[in-house]
Amino acid sequence: MRLSLRFVLPLLLVLAAIAYGVAPLVDRLTLGWFVRDLDMRSALIANTIQEPLQEQLAAGRKAKTGEFFNRITQDERLFAVGYCAAPASPVLASRSLPAQIRCNDLERWQGQGATAHLLASAQGPLHVAVKRMPSEAAPEGQLVLVHDMSFVTRRSKETQQYVFYAFMALGAIISLVTVIIAQLSWRGWMAGMHSLLRGEGLLRRPVLDALPEFKPIERDLQRLVRELEATTRARDESQITWTPEALRTILHTELRGEDVIVVSNREPYIHQRRGERIEVQRPASGLVTALEPIMRACSGTWVAHGSGSADREVVDKSDCVAVPPESPAYQLRRVWLTPEEEAGYYYGFANEGLWPLCHIAHVRPTFRSGDWAQYVAVNRKFAQAVVRQAKTKNPVVLVQDYHLALLPKMIRDELPDATIITFWHIPWPNPESFAICPWREDILAGMLGSSILGFHTQFHCNNFVDTVDRFLEARVDRESFNVSFGGKSTAVQRYPISIAWPPEPEMMAQDVAQCRTSVRELNDLPAEHKLGVGVDRLDYTKGIVERFRAIEQLLELNPHWIGRFTFVQIAAPTRSGIDEYQHHEAQVRAMATRINTRFERQGPPPIVLKVEHHEPRAVYAYFRAADLCFVSSLHDGMNLVAKEFIAARDDERGVLVLSEFTGAARELPEALIVNPYDADQCAAALHLALTMPEAEQRDRMRLMRGLVAEYNVFRWAGRMLLDAAAMRRRSRLASQKGRARL
Ligand code: ADQ
């Protein structure tokens, strides 16, 4: 638009100037034509009246001649007529003959050129023509015919106007045509650039389509591009250092200009009211760390539940707020939930139903139809928000977790061309366990609205595919791990999540020796006291009870450690509105008290339980201060705490004791892998950890650090985006082939 104005306005101005410049030229030209016309007219009149006039003159009827002249000047154009018998005689004329015309001065009207015949008068310009009219009585007789030329001035004005309007119309037409051509070629150029960037530029060229002789060249070029692409990708992926920058590059090269939307229950920024002030909180979450670089790079939209007390105060009229607050880069679109919706959807169906169902942690899932109804309604609310936020008909939508299982299908129904990547952060159980869900088919169908469905481990992918095979009329391809259902295909893939690497410098600011000292002082422990840590949400799936049982067993089997070893359990309160979580917290507290009471006589307590949220920096200080970290989840999709502990140990010391039922155990065989239900085995692993030589600690830690560095969270997000981009390219190619066949 701006471009058009920049072009059109100057063009119109230039044309207007030309129109004004051209007008006098046109005037001069038309004047010449009119003078010639009037000359001819005068000659015609002279010829016509010659005979009657000479008769009257011969008869000597001068008065009658005057009347005759007056009569013929009634003609609209003929202004006056006069007759000179000789240069010295008086003029015999109609009443209107201007006084400047005298018989002794007639030569002045007989010169060459248009202006020689012009006479200015009060009535306007007059044209004077002198015609010879000899007779026997007056051989020098001359007839003067004066025509009114004011109509020339009127016409000249009209002509000027017409010329001006004609140029303006011409300018408008030229501008319009130019703007249309410019727009079309700009769009075509942009489309060409986009398709080139997507590696299909050569396919879209209508010229190549139209000329069959170019087909073989086109095919060769396509093959070359594909080969280049494949080798570059293979090389890139093995050589890529996965950083936020690498993620941005992928977005710019593979998904340039695409509309990217993230949807999760939890929001990346929470606005809380603290008296007069509004505070912005950033939940400590691996998910936010992984997805924020994507959002920043593509200025996308993140749709999430607005849960902060001041969230409504900062949004605009479409419920959006630009974040991060310090340098806004993308939109956070908040979805509002009523207390009933939150109770049914979040606490009810998601956390009392799906969470225990998928974790198989021996807590019975509770399924209520009221909760299910809220779950469906809230998923629909999120879907509507996504559809409303979509800027194109084929956005890339990243759906997060078990709160939004129905969302993929709901989005697919509205935006059939969207690329929907769903990531399931928790485990997927075997078909027998999943079968107890009364709405199992709806959940599966909802998830199969995804283009790509991701789990942390191959084991969870297998379980999901088995479950679909058991309960839906779907075609399952076990070689490619593709599920076809309802005419759409879903790729089921493994994308192990991780943490940001390297960790933020702020986390490592205090050196390990300082951390060891300060953490021990803070907990009243002697300087050389052995320290173990556990960091979890206070959730029954994390195996905190089993962990304490293992510590008790350690002290029972190796009393040497009583008073010499303390385990600090940092437990963030979570979902405390749910009965099961309240019972669990009470059980954990009671157990810590019982074990501490049992071993209290001999120095510091074996367990320090801190039921509170800690800032990431404080959590890292504990990781760096500890001799071991114990992760004893009964079932865990991945478990990021294990990876954070490894990241925190740049001194290459410390031992990780890790439950075999975590996704992390499949990637970290150098940890001491345990069955958390086997207290003896866990106690033995704790003893091994506390006595492990430093060299062995270093060897194990080095290997694990290498792995976490390489398979970090940016790789997790990047792999999904690369697969989505490839899927989009394939489907575009397929639709072009389809068109070509038609
Ligand atoms: P979670 O069940 O929440 O995540 P986890 O992967 O261990 O489990 O992540 C917990 C995060 O919270 C870690 O970053 C940890 O540092 C932090 N945290 C825990 N307790 C804390 C405390 N007291 N104070 C401060 N921070 C604390 C779900 C799945 C996992 C999966 C992740 C990511 O259950 O299996 O690994 O999603 O997909």
Structural features:
23 strands; 742 residues; 16% strand; 23 helices
How would you sum up this structure, described in words?
The protein has 742 residues and is of the alpha/beta class. It is built from 23 helices and 23 strands. A hairpin with a 2-residue loop joins strand 3 (118-121) and strand 4. The longest helix has 57 residues, at 2-58. It is rod-shaped and about 165 Å long. The two termini are 37 Å apart. 39% of the residues are buried. Bound molecules: adenosine-5'-diphosphate-glucose. Residues 284, 286, 425-426, 497, 535-537, 570-572, 613-614, 619, 636-641, 644 line the site of adenosine-5'-diphosphate-glucose (ADQ).
Question: Beta-strand percentage?
Answer: 15-25%
Mean of all residue-level pLDDT scores: 89
Ions, cofactors and other bound molecules: adenosine-5'-diphosphate-glucose
How would you sum up the major sheet? 10 strands, mixed
Number of helices: 23
* Coarse structural class: alpha/beta
Query: Uncertain segments of ≥5 residues (pLDDT<50)?
Result: 197-208
Task: Report the C-alpha radius of gyration, rounded.
Answer: 47 Å
Quick one: how many beta strands?
23
Shape: rod-shaped
